[in-house]
Specification:
Helix content is 32%, strand content 21%. It is an alpha/beta fold.
C-alpha cells in the first residue's frame, strides 16, 4: 500500500464485503478480516447486547470497545458517529439522546450506508441519518456536534492528524468525544504492517499509543482521559498466515503489545482570542 488513496480503497472493498456478512462471520476474525481464528471466538469486540437501544441487525461485531457507554450523551444532544457501519452505535446513541436529539452516522462505504438506512427504516427512527463521506473531510458544517463517538475506525484513517482536526471542527465549543480504537506499544513486524487484510482488520493501521494521544493534545483538546484499556492478543493461527514459526517466536518475545483504548476529550468552551475584536474558531 503506497499511498492514502490505495489504503482507503482496500478498506472500502473489505468493508463492502463485510456489509454483506453476518455478525458471526465478522466476530470470528479481527474486525471482519478474513483470517479467522480457531483459538478465540473474537479478538476485539465487546458485547453491546445489554445496552439500551441495541439492535442485533445493526451489530456486525466490528468494534473494539463500547464508546457510547462512556460518551456522556444527554437528552437532546446532536451525536455524530464516525465509521457508523450498519448503525450499531448510532442506535445506542439514539436511545440516550432521545426524540429531541439527533444522530448522524458518517461512513465512506456505500454498502454500509445502505444497510444502515434499511435498519433505520425498519426501526422507524426520524432523527437518525447516515451520510456517505470520509472522516478526513466530513460532510458536516462546523460546530454542529455535542458528542462524537467512533468504534475501531480512526486507526484505519491514513491521516489521523487531519481526522482529529475534523472532529475538533465539527464539535461545538464545550463538546466532547469518546472514541474506541486500536493502538500499539512497540513496533509490529513489517510483514503485518504491509498486509492489507490485517490493515482492514484494525491492527496494521494502528499507531503508537503515545503518538495517538499526542495528536489529540496537539489540536487543543483538553481533559484527555483513557476511559478504558485492554490488551488484544493476536492468536498464533492468525500470525502463522503472515509469519514463520521463528518470526512468531521473536514477535512474542519482543514485548510489542496491541491495545484497545477508549479515549475521552473535550473541545474548549471558549477559544482564545486572536486580538481584541476577533476570536479564533
Amino acid at each position: 500500500m503506497e499511498n492514502a488513496e490505495q489504503i482507503k480503497q482496500v478498506v472500502r472493498e473489505k468493508y463492502s464485503e463485510i456489509a454483506l456478512q453476518d455478525k458471526a462471520a465478522n466476530e470470528s476474525s479481527c474486525c471482519g478480516a478474513s483470517s479467522c481464528s480457531s483459538e478465540v471466538y473474537n479478538i476485539m469486540s465487546d458485547d453491546y447486547a445489554t445496552l439500551k437501544g441495541y439492535n442485533p441487525d445493526a451489530d456486525l461485531g466490528l468494534g473494539c470497545g463500547l464508546p457510547t457507554q462512556f460518551a456522556k450523551i444527554k437528552k437532546g444532544d446532536v451525536v455524530v458517529d464516525l465509521g457508523s457501519g450498519a448503525g450499531n452505535d448510532c442506535f445506542v446513541a439514539r436511545a440516550e439522546t432521545g426524540e429531541t436529539g439527533k444522530v448522524i452516522g458518517i461512513d465512506m462505504t456505500e454498502a454500509m450506508i445502505n444497510r444502515a438506512r434499511i435498519n433505520t427504516e425498519k426501526l422507524g427512527f426520524h432523527n437518525v441519518e447516515f451520510r456517505l463521506g470520509e472522516i478526513e473531510k466530513m460532510p458536516l458544517t462546523s460546530n454542529v456536534a455535542d458528542v462524537v463517538v467512533s468504534n475501531c475506525v480512526l486507526n484505519l484513517v491514513p491521516d489521523k492528524q487531519k481526522a482529529f482536526a475534523e472532529i475538533h471542527r465539527i464539535l461545538k465549543a464545550g463538546g466532547h468525544f469518546s472514541i474506541s480504537d486500536i493502538v500499539l506499544t512497540g513496533a509490529l513486524p513489517e510483514k503485518i504492517l504491509k498486509t492489507a487484510e490485517l490493515y482492514a482488520g484494525c491492527v496494521a493501521g494502528a499507531i503508537q499509543k503515545e503518538e495517538y494521544l499526542g495528536i489529540i493534545g496537539s489540536l487543543g483538546f483538553q481533559n484527555i482521559t483513557v476511559q478504558k484499556e485492554k490488551a488484544i492478543p493476536v492468536p498464533v493461527d492468525i500470525l502463522s498466515n503472515y509469519l514463520t514459526a521463528e518470526e512468531i517466536a521473536l514477535y512474542q518475545q519482543s514485548g510489542v503489545s496491541i491495545f484497545s483504548i477508549t479515549v475521552y476529550a473535550e473541545k474548549k468552551k471558549e477559544e482564545a482570542c486572536c486580538d481584541k475584536t476577533t476570536c479564533c474558531n
